[in-house]
Specification:
There is one protein chain. The protein contains 16 helices and ten strands. It is mostly helical. It starts with a strand and ends in a 20-residue tail after the last helix. It has a single domain, classed as Serine Threonine Protein Phosphatase 5, Tetratricopeptide repeat. Helices cover 40% and strands 8% of the residues.
Length: 495
């Protein structure tokens, strides 16, 4: 069978054939597009392949919906009204290894990783006869390919593996993902690396991305393409999860510096304007190429957080102060009732059109960086409570009742409690809550029911134990991907 990589431009959705029964998802070369036997032999073909890799990234099966929302849906900050069945198994923790969402995340995550690896492997051969201008272009494409692979593998590791660190306890020796350092040949057996090795691969890719951006003389300076600020932001996020506090702080500050961001937006109107359209968020460092004319419609995140069931949980809503500008984007459909709430999109509202299906994902954003700096300062030997307070204040001032560090807690314990709540308030709909709850070893409340008088089906759930199953379609191919042992025992038991 010929080898293929997907040919799809960022703003043009092309139909792609699914792997046949028995084919492993790691073989990402059965898709309509460029023949890899002689495909990546010119800069223009590299550019096309890179665009195809971006397309796979922002597909609704990956960062355009599923891979992001799985980080919020099964947590305490979301509420499912039960009207449709989207993500219901994930939300209620009735998870199976044939789950459609998990299947799709795995498949598209590896499409991104493997296609990026093909680009990384192909580019060096083009240097010999390239002009200096062309070499700079190739360096840029290398940087973006490393960024794409690093992000995809970070997401796959977080979703399909144990949290690498849980409140100081190291799980890096547990099974990780199949690391794609080089393209996977068709029908080749593979094996899972450890979580530690998976994170090492992520950090290596992201650091390589920075080096190649430097060699290229910078990045594109466009929100829909990876650039230095976003990569530093991902390095900060990964190091936070690894409890590498100094590296987390340093990279978060580098992200802010690269994006030239030192403060945030305050006030209802200004905050709401951040979510006006696909390029309106001036606090973002990387967003997907989803627009009013090129979107996933019914499969979009905006639809999920509106007509398809999901809304901020009553628990989350209660965390906001009366004068918090972030609630300016919380609105409810005319058919909404307290018992069956129907949200109108939140960060996916796309206010310029009023259609949540047109909204994009803002993947790496400045507020997260300030919150990383705040948290890391509490645990680093080089950090201070005062520096934690100052970084936290930049975000917390979204609540206009908070104006100075004097309005924030002054002890490490109380300040950390505030940071936890602030991350819930600020990062809602950005898909990070699950990993926060797991790494903090929270005894979680999940599967909320019976609005508006909420009760949780599961309380005191040790959510740090949660490990999603590897899709059975992958495991059963026999190409070497082992299942997470006893994954079903990590699910909560009914109270």
């Amino acid at each position: 069978m010929k080898k293929y990589i997907l040919k799809a431009f960022m703003l043009v959705a092309l139909g792609a054939g699914m792997t046949s029964c028995g084919d492993t998802f790691l073989e990402t070369d059965y898709y309509s597009g460029i023949d890899t036997e002689d495909a990546l032999t010119s800069i223009s073909k590299i550019s096309t392949a890179l665009n195809g890799t971006y397309y796979n990234l922002y597909h609704y099966s990956f960062a355009g919906n599923y891979a992001i929302n799985i980080g919020d849906i099964p947590t305490d900050i979301s509420y499912w009204n039960g009207k449709t069945g989207h993500f219901d198994g994930i939300y209620t923790f009735t998870i199976v290894d044939t789950d459609t969402y998990l299947n799709s995340i795995w498949e598209y995550g590896y499409k991104v990783a493997d296609n990026a690896a093909r680009i990384i492997e192909a580019i060096p051969a083009l240097y010999e006869n390239a002009t200096e201008e062309e070499k700079a272009e190739l360096e840029l494409y290398l940087a973006e390919a490393y960024s794409l692979r690093g992000y995809a593998q970070l997401m796959l590791t977080n979703i399909f593996c144990h949290q690498i660190k849980v409140n100081g306890t190291d799980f890096s020796s547990e099974p990780g993902i199949v690391v794609i350092n080089t393209p996977i040949p068709a029908f080749e057996k593979v094996s899972r690396s450890t979580i530690g090795q998976s994170y090492e691969a992520v950090l290596s890719d992201l650091n390589n991305a920075i080096s190649h951006f430097d060699a290229a003389g910078g990045d594109r300076g466009q929100l829909q393409y990876f650039g230095k600020a976003a990569v530093y932001g991902l390095l900060a996020r990964a190091n936070l999860y690894m409890e590498n506090w100094d590296a987390a702080m340093s990279n978060a500050q580098k992200a802010l510096d690269a994006a030239n961001i030192s403060t945030l937006t305050y006030g209802n109107d200004s905050y709401k304007a951040l979510y006006n359209s696909e390029t309106s968020n001036t606090e973002s460092m990387f967003a997907l190429a989803i627009t009013a004319s090129q979107n996933w419609s019914a499969n979009s995140s905006g639809t999920l957080w509106s007509s398809y069931n999901y809304s901020p949980s009553p628990k989350l809503q209660a965390l906001y102060g009366e004068n918090d500008c972030r609630t300016s984007i919380f609105a409810w459909d005319s058919q909404s009732t307290p018992e069956v709430p129907i949200f109108k999109g939140g960060k996916f509202s796309h206010f310029s059109s009023g259609n949540p299906a047109y909204a994009t994902h803002y993947i790496v954003n400045a507020p997260e960086m300030f919150l990383i700096i705040a948290e890391a300062n509490l645990y680093s030997a080089n950090g201070t409570i005062n520096n934690a307070q100052k970084a936290l204040l930049t975000v917390a001032k979204r609540n206009s009742d908070i104006t100075s560090v004097g309005d924030l807690p002054s002890t490490k314990e109380n300040l950390m409690s505030f940071i936890k709540d602030e991350r819930a308030r600020e990062l809602f709909q950005e898909g990070l809550r699950l990993y926060d709850l797991r790494r903090w070893d929270e005894m979680a409340e999940v599967n909320a029911t019976q609005a508006p008088n909420i009760s949780f089906v599961y309380t005191n759930y040790k959510i740090s134990n949660l490990v999603f199953p590897i899709p059975s379609a992958e495991v059963n191919t026999g190409y070497g991907v082992a299942q997470n042992e006893n994954w079903s025992s990590t699910l909560p038991q009914r109270n």
